[in-house]
Each structure stands twice: as structure tokens, then as C-alpha cells.
């Protein structure tokens, strides 16, 4: 066992890292939160202009709320959907400033490496007794080492967007400033950069929908603005989420609005489109070459927005003995539940320490958005449950660590690229994938497929909140009592 006199290091002062600090403090454990940004929740601030699809009641952590109430905080309207900026202003900033959290939060502190004292990856020695060592690069310059008894990596994935290239690698010419990643703000701070331009948005998912919707609104106001949207998959209802079947109404409505923009011709869709090369075109434009429905196709646009999701940065963890699924890059116990190849129900049974542990590196956890690896369906509420369970385990409360304390809303859509038989087998025959129709926009109107009735989606079903749609229960350690719909 590592010395208990050392703090528990939390990498990242975002929503989940700050919630981890609250749970650790509540358990009498000493956290040190290392945040790369010069202000807490730097990643959320970067998409602060985006309105969240989950309302306040899903966005706050129970221990954090208890802490905040002790300082006289008033909870926001639970039904309101905050923007990222409001999430910071009304919840995360007060939490970071709380007198018990602030002294334990180090800003401008980027963790660049994690290992065990005097043990590289290969060395057994007394590995499990050795404290963790975190190398921390200060924004002011210099690197120092921090020792910890346990580590929760809550650093998210915002810093490592996926490339737009077809093979998971940057397409030739992709680097060099031709693609804007993350979520630009065409109606606000980035307006001058997008008004009157031809813009190609690449990627599916809610981030892409947000950008496309904002660009379409800009096109109403700024003549010459034209919006195209490239999807890797054939166009079908599933590209636009679960609509009315989504347990989060705002998320379903976003998809429905995005779908309407395509159907009404206000946004031109390219699908299935695989990006092969980017290069400069005359007048500062970008030439995007690829395969459209298997045939070579090229387009010249003024701006390219990459909204193809995010992946975890595992480089700082190279000296740790991680157990990660090779495809999803989540722990093997969690991966089958969130693997978009099997399904994208978006709802995973609540899980915690047992599913997130790395057996060969006890005391180290990846939690929050990064815990999902490359899977796209993370919800903040999931992260809150993860760190509640991990803090309970570190405090020696095995019962609380095992307990499920979360009910998640359904996405209302269940899709995957595996053959239907494989999907159904994985889901115990209960999860129906959608009929993914070929390219024509008209096919969008083909009914979407929902694995769980909308009524079940919002019902309180603590044991199996995902209803009938989930992968089979994975093998868990004998002491891990985690119910699922196996
Ligand atoms: C546009 C958008 C909208 C979203 N809307 C919703 C929504 O409505 N509901 C919902 O539940 N989820 C939503 N999400 C998902 C959301 O990002 C997460 O739920 C939440 O932000 C995850 O919190 P986190 O703490 O795990 O990661 P993050 O919010 O990414 O926080 C990670 C923190 O770690 C810091 N960091 C990164 N690397 C290091 C390092 N090496 N060392 C130190 N610090 C580091 C970052 O600066 C950041 O502050 C949305 C995401 C996006 C992009």
C-alpha cells in the first residue's frame, strides 16, 4: 500500500475533477487538484457559448452541492439548460472558490507524466507500495514532481480532437491550420471568420450539430454564408440522434433541428464521405478531396470545421500498467457497454471503481470524459457517479463503492456498424439497431430506431436505467455487484 499520508492527486479541475475533490474531502481524504488551465474548468470555458443538452439537475454533483450549500450557494433552476459559461459561472467557479477546495486546487499546472517512484513501466520491485509521481509543468515555466497515494485522471479529452482523415490519421494536408477543431462560435467571437464564407463541417454527433445550427443561423444574416456537412456514415435517421425518444429532450430537439436543416436544403449533406486529402486552393480556400459514396469527390471551401469527436491523451500515462480495451481505450469492463461498434444507446449502467480499476496499477483511475476513451456518449452525471464510487473505495467503504446511485436518461437511438445479429447477440437480443439507409436525404425520414420505449427512458429504474438496451454484463471481480440487463 502506498503511504496514506500523501494526497490523492486529481488531474484536471473540470466538472468531474472538482466533483472528485468534493467527494474526497467529504471522505476525509486530502486531494490536490492539478488543472492545466489558468482558470478552473478550462475545457468547459472553451465551449462556453454552447447551450448544454442536459438540464441543471443532471449537471451538478451531490457532494459538490452539499459543499456549496455549506457556503450559502443557491441552486439554479433544475430544469434550465445552462450554457457552458453558465455552468462555470453558477456552479464550477463557486465550487473551485470554496474555502475547502481553493487551497487544494493548483491552476496552470499541466500533468505531463505519471509513474511510480523509482519504478518505470517494466520494473516490478515493490511497485504497489511505491507512491505515484506526477510531473507537473507550470504555465509559468518549470517542471516539478508531486507524489500521491492515488491518482484520478479526470483530464477529459478536449485537448486531443480526432483528425478528420478517413483512417483515424490526419489526412495529408490536414495539419497546418486548414481545419478548425472543437466548437467555433460563428454567432459570437468567431463571427468575422465565418460570415460570408463557404464552410464545410465534418463529423456527426452533437458538437457537429451545434456548429451546423449556428452556421445556418449565420447564413440567414450574412449573405454568402453557405454550409455543407460531411458525414462518414450513410445518411439516415440515426445520424440525428433519438429525437422525441431521447430522454434528454433538448438533445433530441437539437438532432431534430439539425435533421430539418438538411431536409429543408439549408445545409447540404455529403454522405458517406471519407476525407483523403486537404490542400490550398486559390484565394485562401481549402480543397477537400475524398470519396463520396465510394467515388472521388472534391470540394473547395473557405473554412473546414472538424467535429469528429475526441480521443484520450494516453502519452502522459505511458509508464503506468494500464488495462485498456484496444479499440475503445476504456477499461475492459466498461468498453463493451459503450462501444459504438456494438451500440450507441448512449446510456450505460452506472459504474464505478470496480469497472474503472486497472488491476496491475492499483490506486490509479481514469474518470470523467476520458474514462470513455473514444466512445462519444459520455454524460457528466456518469462522471459524478464514477468519482463518488472511487472516493468511497479509497476511503475503505466497499459497500458505498459498489452501490449504484444514478439513473441516466436514454439517448433514444441505438445504432452500430456491427451486423444486426452481432448487435442483438451482444444485447441479449433486446437491442434493435436501426435500418441505416443509403445516402439520399429522403432516407432520413425513415423511422429512427429506439431500443427502449420513451416512457421507460425517463422512468426511475435504478438497476437497469438503460432499459433493455445494453451489452451483456461483463465479468467483474467477485465483489463487484453491478446489476445490468444481461
Ligand atoms: C460542446 C459540448 C457540449 C457538451 N454538453 C454536455 C451536456 O449537455 N451534458 C453533459 O453531461 N455533458 C456534455 N458534454 C460532455 C462534457 O464535456 C462533459 O460531460 C464534461 O465536461 C466532462 O467533464 P470532465 O471533467 O471529465 O472533462 P473536462 O470538462 O474536459 O475537464 C478536464 C479538465 O482537465 C484539464 N486538463 C486537461 N489535460 C490536463 C493535464 N494534462 N493536466 C492538468 N489538467 C488537464 C482541462 O483543462 C479541463 O479543465 C459536452 C461536451 C461538449 C464538448
From TrEMBL:
Domain FAD/NAD(P)-binding: start-end pairs: 8-324
Record flagged with keyword Hydrolase: no
Keywords annotated in UniProt: Oxidoreductase
Protein source organism: Craurococcus roseus
Protein name: NAD(P)-binding domain-containing protein
Pfam families for the chain: Pyr_redox_2
TM region(s), chain numbering: none
The keyword Oxidoreductase is annotated on this UniProt entry: yes
